[in-house]
Amino acid sequence: MDSLLPVFSNKHLEEQSQPAPGLRLAAQFFSIIFHPLLISAYTIAFLIFLHPAAFVGVDEHIKVLRMLSTLLFTVIYPGITILIAWRLKLVRSLALHNMQDRIVGFLIAMFFYWWTWNVFRNLPDVPPVAVHFALGSFLAICGGWMCNIFFKISMHALAVGGLCCFFIIFGMHDPFATGMYISVSILIAGIVCSSRLLLNAHSSFEIVTGLIVGVLGQMAGWFF
Description:
It contains nine helices and no strands. By secondary structure, the chain is an all-alpha fold. Helix 3 (36-50) runs antiparallel to helix 4 (60-87) and helix 7 (155-173) packs antiparallel against helix 8 (180-198). The protein is globular and about 50 Å long.
């Protein structure tokens, strides 16, 4: 009987619960390329360069400028500000692992995403669909920040939840919709959420609440 104890020990069970190194590497890869700060840039890039009608009639030079401004305000500036906050010891980790760090991260993102929406809604060449998405992203971040005061919430799930909701609503109103980008957004959401669970970065509750807040934010951004 004693020889069987190691088989059923907690250590053995923990080792069995750990995913294979290859799976962990893939999960880390998808967590990076679908980082929450990158989701908005991917979506705007799709609307500008791939969708046949979203930015129709807009000069190519203006399209590039709009894409660069999106990258600046939704990726580069928030990333640099979080880096400065880390150097000033306002946050403990660049990955924003704990709730206290995430409050700072959410506040930084809230400011820059609000600025993006405010700029977009005042530019005549930016279509309403991009304005809706920018507003929905800002509202989702606000919702995530409020939830994070009480419990940890997955930023990755919040971002991909908003991504799925946006493309589903957009697909219902888009005459050029084929269902492809809706399917791709759902696939991305599944991969990202599974990756966060594989890495033990979040519990199922934190993933589900992140998805719900992201969905609600985009719904509010589209309809209000």
